[in-house]
């Protein structure tokens, strides 16, 4: 991380009323699966960020080529525009979007009604899930490149951490609570104050 990035002020705190949620994390953490479950539960819209990638990006990932910052640039713009439109029109939305770097997360959080939630998973669980997934364009051999690109959310980042290794129902319940209860959001942020991994059950290295 560069000095100028470190000196930037932390993002604004999320508003009491959440209008949009970005479910972030590396490939296989459950963004799409759990995002749909949360959206169904809340009666919100769900958009898969994978559907907003330029075709060239999908082609690259399918052929085992990791995306660059330049590849992600137009995609992040589409994601940010989508969030902004939903908030402006009062149509709450869950967007599944990897948002791997802190500057990507800052770019997506254009207003205080947008909440970022990062699904943190162990490497073993991610390998197991990607190995078992069929019919998806993402080449599982790219997982290490996702780890390399990731800036893990830090205590000052304003991104909430969720245990992505947990059972799908549990993950869904946790996220619904964080979206609907400001006190739970504040408690989670405070728990993260001591460091990302220690805020999650089981500890260990998480991505
Ligand atoms: N909490 C969970 N427990 C067990 N399996 C899960 C869980 N969440 C997701 N899965 C499974 O893991 C695989 C990956 O999930 P999913 O496609 O939702 O991840 P993703 O983060 O959206 O990945 P990508 O970014 O590559 O699209 C799927 O087969 C899904 O069924
Ligand atoms: O930023 C990225 O490298 C991409 O968004 C990836 O995370 C993929 O889109 C996703 O994992 C495949 O579904």
From TrEMBL:
Q: Which reaction does it catalyse?
A: D-gluconate + ATP = 6-phospho-D-gluconate + ADP + H(+)
In its UniProt record, a GO molecular function of this protein is: ATP binding
Task: Give the pathway annotation.
Answer: Carbohydrate acid metabolism
Q: Which PROSITE patterns match?
A: PROKAR_LIPOPROTEIN
Record-level GO cellular component terms: cytoplasm
EC no. given is: 2.7.1.12
Q: What is one GO biological process annotated to this record?
A: carbohydrate metabolic process
Tell me any Pfam family this protein matches: SKI
What keywords appear on the UniProt entry? Answer: ATP-binding, Kinase, Nucleotide-binding, Transferase
Q: What class of enzyme is it?
A: transferase
Specify the superkingdom. Answer: Bacteria
Describe the family membership recorded for this protein in Swiss-Prot or TrEMBL: Belongs to the gluconokinase GntK/GntV family.
NCBIfam families documented for this protein: therm_gnt_kin
What is the name listed in the Swiss-Prot or TrEMBL entry for this protein?
Gluconokinase
According to its UniProt entry, this protein's organism is: Alienimonas californiensis
């Amino acid at each position: 991380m560069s000095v100028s990035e470190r000196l930037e002020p932390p993002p604004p705190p999320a508003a009491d009323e959440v209008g949009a949620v970005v479910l972030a994390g590396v490939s296989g953490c459950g963004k799409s699966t759990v995002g749909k479950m949360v959206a169904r539960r809340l009666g919100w819209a769900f958009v898969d960020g994978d559907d907003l990638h330029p075709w060239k990006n999908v082609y690259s990932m399918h052929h085992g080529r990791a995306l660059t910052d330049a590849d992600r640039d137009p995609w992040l713009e589409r994601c940010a525009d989508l969030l902004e439109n939903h908030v402006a029109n009062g149509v709450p939305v869950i967007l599944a979007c990897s948002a791997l770097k802190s500057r990507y997360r800052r770019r997506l959080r254009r207003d205080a009604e947008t909440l970022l939630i990062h699904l943190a998973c162990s490497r073993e669980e991610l390998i197991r899930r990607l190995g078992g997934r069929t019919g998806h364009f993402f080449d599982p051999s790219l997982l290490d490149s996702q780890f390399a690109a990731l800036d893990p959310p830090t205590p000052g980042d304003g991104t909430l951490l969720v245990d992505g290794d947990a059972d799908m129902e549990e993950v869904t319940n946790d996220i619904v609570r964080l979206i609907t209860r400001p006190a739970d959001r504040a408690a989670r942020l405070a728990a993260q104050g001591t460091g990302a991994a220690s805020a999650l059950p089981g500890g260990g290295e998480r991505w």
